[in-house]
Design a protein that fits this description.
With 306 residues, the chain is α+β, with helices and mostly antiparallel strands. The chain has helices spanning 29-44, 68-75, 109-139, 171-174, 202-209, 224-228, 292-304; strands at 148-151, 178-181, 238-242, 252-256, 260-265, 271-275. The strands form 2 sheets. Strands 3-4-5-6 form a 4-stranded antiparallel sheet, covered by helices on one side. A two-stranded antiparallel ribbon has the order 1-2. A hairpin with a 3-residue loop joins β4 (252-256) and β5 (260-265). α1 (29-44) packs parallel to α3 and α2 (68-75) crosses α3. The chain is flat, with a radius of gyration of 21 Å.
Length: 306
């Protein structure tokens, strides 16, 4: 038995190296997840009862080793470079070589290009396999009766602001896809909401859809009101936090509303304020402006009430 076959390519599971994987498309974990989901629907579920299925795909988390066809598709493209804010610290460089699992990066342009190509390729790989699962649902006449929620636990800084990996409160790491596809019988119009939502809203959404009771202790909210009316708001601000679990990230609290994001690093007192409508890439930190105290005071008061 090959006890290390999953990383036989030698690429770090948190690193920035991007390259084609050594496995075929049909041997990859993303393909395996979609296949197991289809097997459950076809062979294991009770067809006389509703089903609940959680499909947890590891990609696009490093190691960034997509099937070769996907990597080749993106390495030939003109890819966007990382965005760097006026507040970002440059760790020096550009750099090559090990260690490859750094939290702060300034990579050689070709290394960053390979990294980004591999990341986009793994996302494309996921899209195709989710599409494969959706095709099965349609073929078996299950799609129109199924509520589907697609999201992720975190994003990837991918060199933005000279940062890498997860846990950061900035958009590339903290903002993730959040898509809800209702059953056809609900007659819900398509739309996009700008209300801030989080992973804590997944469980109450499914409980509400099943007409089950949402526990009083639940901090999340059902998203069904938004699904039925995109102008509905289930909260004014979303609170996110990190205790500084990893040695390279200080603990922080952040508040996000429909337009702004406020970040306070609790262990060093640093603050950020971004206007995400005018500045979605967080290039300009309003906490560095001449109006900083005036702008930050209401956000400090908001955070104190959380």
């Amino acid at each position: 038995k090959d006890v290390d076959g999953g990383i036989a390519h030698g690429v770090d599971v948190n690193g920035w190296v991007g390259r084609p994987g050594h496995l075929t498309e049909q041997q990859g974990m993303t393909y395996w997840c979609a296949s197991r989901a289809i097997d459950f629907l076809h062979y294991q579920r009770d067809p006389t009862a509703p089903f609940f299925l959680n499909v947890s795909i590891f990609d696009p988390h490093p190691p960034l080793v997509p099937p070769e066809w996907y990597y080749n598709r993106y390495i030939e493209m003109d890819l966007p470079e990382p965005v760097i804010g006026d507040w970002a610290h440059n760790p020096g460089g550009p750099r090559r070589g090990y260690p490859t699992a750094a939290w702060r990066v300034n990579l050689d342009p070709e290394l960053m290009r390979c990294c980004r190509a591999a990341y986009y390729a793994t996302v494309n790989y996921i899209d195709d396999q989710i599409g494969r699962l959706v095709q099965y649902l349609k073929r078996e006449n299950l799609y129109n009766d199924t509520l589907i929620l697609f999201t992720s636990d975190h994003g990837e800084m991918l060199g933005d602001h000279h940062l890498f990996r997860k846990c950061w409160p900035y958009e590339a790491s903290a903002r993730v896809p959040y898509l809800l596809k209702p059953p056809a019988g609900w007659s819900v119009p398509a739309g996009v909401s700008d209300c801030p939502v989080g992973l804590q809203d997944v469980m109450p959404t499914f409980l509400d859809a099943a007409d089950a009771t949402v526990p009083d202790a639940c901090t999340g909210r059902s998203l069904l009101p938004i699904l039925k009316d995109e102008s509905a708001a289930i909260r004014e601000t979303l609170h996110i936090e990190d205790s500084g679990t990893y040695e390279s990230i200080d603990g922080y609290h952040a508040l996000i509303d429909q337009r702004h994001k406020y970040i306070w690093y609790s262990q060093r007192g640093t603050e950020h304020l971004f206007d995400l409508e005018a500045d979605p890439d967080e290039l300009t930190d309003l906490a560095l402006s001449e109006e900083a105290d005036h702008l930050l005071t209401p956000w400090r008061e908001r955070l104190a009430r959380v």
